[in-house]
Amino acid sequence: MLLNGTIAAGGGTGVLSPSAFLGFIAGIILVGFVADVIFRRLSIPPTLFLILLGFVLSNVLHVVSPDSVLKIAPYFGTMAFAIILFEGGLALDIKVLVKKLTIAFLYSMVLMVVSTVAITALWVFYGGELSIGLLIGFMLGGTSGAIVLPLISKLHVSPEAKIISKFEAVLAEIYIVVGASVVLNMLQGKGGNPLQYMFDSVVYAVLIAMAVGFMWLQVIKTLVQNEIYYILTLGMLFGVYWVVELLGGSGPLAAIILGMVISNAHNIVDMIKPVLRVKEDRLEMLNFTLDEFTRKVSVELSFVFSTFFFLILGMTVNLRYLLDVHIIQGMFAVFLILVAVRLVVTFLLYRVDRDLNMRDGLILLFMMPRGLVSAIVAFTVGMYIPDKSHMFLSYAFGVILLTVVWMTAGTFFTKIFLTEPKEEKVESRGFWGLFKGRRR
To answer: What phi, psi does 426 have (nearest 5°)?
Structure first.
C-alpha cells in the first residue's frame, strides 16, 4: 500500500521507493521482451515463464501478497482483457470468421458441456455435492481468451485454426461466468434461466459493439491526423465494455467484436453490398482501412498488458493452497479429464473439418490454458461458500498451472517435431469424414 511516498511490499518485509518501483516496472517489461524473443526463436511460449516469475515474486521473494493481488486482479484483469481481446479482434479476418463461426461455437460448446459434466460426475462419484461439482466444472471447463489470443496469433497455424481457437476461448469465458452465476443463484434460491443469460450475453455484445464500431469509424476519419486518437479509441473501448456488462452482456465478446469491426470495415462493406439495396456512395462512408501505425500501437500495448497479466496470474497462486495430497490428486484428476475430453472432441473436429491439417489439430489440442477468469470465479465462489474457499482456490490455481505447462510443452513439441504443413488433398468431408480416410 502507499505509505509516505513509498510502496510497501505485500508481505510487509520491504519497501519500494517511487524510483525503485519504476525500476521494478522496467524490469518486468524487459523480462516480457526477453520472453517474447525466446518464443519467436524457440517457440517456447512466454506464458509459463511469466506466471512462474509472478509466483516467485509473491511466494518466494514476498514482494507482494497473493491475497492482496487477488483483490486488485479483477480490476486490472478486466482492463487487460479488454485491451488484449480488442487487439485480437483487430487481427481477425471477417471472411474466415463467417466461414468458421458455427463450427467454433459448436466446438467450444461441446468442450464446455462435456468437460463440466465429466468433472461433476467424478466429483459426485467420490461422494461430493452436485452443486459443488458443477461449480468446479464450470470454473475449470473453459480456456482463457487473454492467454490464447496473443499466443495463437504468433503460431504457424492456418487462419481457420486461429479463428476456432480464438472464439472458443472467448466464448468459454462467457460459459464460465454464466454457468457459475446460475449455480450460485440456485444455491441462494434465486433461480435463473441459463439460456436467457447466454442470449443476453451474446446479443447485447454483438449489437452494441457493431453499432459503436461503425459509428466510431466516422470519428476516426475526422481525428486520424490527431496523435491521441488511439487513446480516445481505448476510452471508447472501455466505455463499450462497461455498458455491455451493465446491460447483462459479455464485455470480452464486445471487445473482440469491436476490434474486428474497426479492422474489417472494408470487408464488411463488400459483404453487405450484394445483400442490401443501398447506393454505394452511402456505404462508402463505412469503407475504412485501419492504418499500420494504429495496428502497431495496439500490438505493443497488448504486449505490455499481457506481460503484466501473466505476472499477476502467477502472483495470485498461493503456495499453501497447493500443499495438500488430496487436493493434488484432485487437480491431476481434473486435468486428465480436461485433456481426455479435448483429445476426443478435437479429433472429431479434425476428422470433420477439411480445412484443418494435423498441425492445426495438435495446436488446438494443446491450446487449453485456464486463466485469471477461473481464478476470479474461484475467489468469488469462495466468498459465497467460505467453508470451501480453500478448496476452490486450490483447484483453480493447480489446474491453471497444469494446463499452462501442457500448452507450453505442446507448442514447443509441434515446433520441434512437426514441419510446416504442406497442401494436402482432401478425400472426404463432412460427417462421413469420421468413417472414411480423411486425406491421402
So the answer is: -90, 130
